[in-house]
Amino acid sequence: MTKAYKYDVKTAGDDNHIDWITLLALCGEKCGGNFKNFNLSYMDKCAELLKSGKTAEEICQNAKYFNYYKEAYDGVLGGFVGTYYIKKDGEWCENYGLKAFSPVAAGYGFSHYRDFGSSRTYGFKRKHLGNDLMGGIGTPIICVESGTVEAMGWNRYGGWRVGIRSFDRKRYYYYAHLRKDFPFNTHLKEGDTVAAGEVIGYLGMTGYSTKENVNNINIAHLHFGMQIIFDEVQKDGNNEIWIDVYEITEFLNKNKSAVEKPKDDKNYRRKTEFYERLLTENGGGG
After folding, report:
1. Which residues belong to any copy of the M23ase beta-sheet core domain (predicted)?
2. Domain extents in the chain
3. Radius of gyration from C-alpha coordinates of the chain
């Protein structure tokens, strides 16, 4: 992801801009989606061909599989890179690059490991559908991608949790086990539009209880999950698609939102004002 992302940003504004999702899809078509031992020189080759004016269809060997991977990677990463605006010295400045953030605020550490698919037994035997980020209680939790708050409140498995849907409706972000007594940014409510980088809540250890506001999790952590939705019937039920976000968490760690705590507010907030054009069009603000 990092290498494809660098090609995208480096060629932004060029006549033959290299879209990182297209580049990843070309490599996915080549390696069958298995990047573990993939020779990245093929990515360099594809990038040079795209820069020379070749189309992806001219480069790929099998358009069917290329289209499959492009749709898949767009579903997962489609809202991560693009144009955004930040305020510097009172002026709004246009930028292009990574506009998705780590779920953990700048200045706060966390540890994690590859735990997707691990066994869970509370309530019923099932697989873990996210990535647990171990950290200190009260760590500010950040909205990864701009979107709409679809769920907020208590869940017997996730404790205090927030669910945010991306604007293109392809990604549903799930942040769970938030702090007892003060789990959320008090300004946040269901239906709100929230910008990437905003503080949405605080790390804790709630959950595994039918009774609200109970710490039944052994280790303080954020459960961070991402559901991919290509069709609305996949939102709830047997057709849900949850993905392993370990590598995404690692990638987003390069872009952490700096936060501060105003004297007149018990909530933390982002230091730098930020907005996206789509966010503004939907009536939101930075």
Report:
1. 127-227
2. 2-77, 119-270
3. 20
Query: Phi and psi (nearest 5°) for 179?
Result: -65, 140
CA atoms within 13 A on the CB side of 33: 9
The pair of structure tokens assigned to 285 is 């603000």
Average pLDDT for 126-139: 96
Which pLDDT value is given to residue 236? Answer: 86
State residue 234 phi and psi, 5-degree precision.
Answer: -85, -10
Average pLDDT over residues 256-285: 81
Question: How many Cβ atoms sit within 10 Å of the Cβ of residue 92?
Answer: 12
Cβ contact 49:25 at 8 Å: no
Q: Which residue has the tokens 């996949």?
A: 234
Question: How many CA atoms lie within 13 Å of 261's alpha carbon, on the beta-carbon side?
Answer: 8
What CATH number should be reported for the domain whose range is 119-270?
2.70.70.10
Q: Which one-letter DSSP state was computed for residue 207?
A: B
CA distance 193 to 200: 11
278, pLDDT greater than 80: no
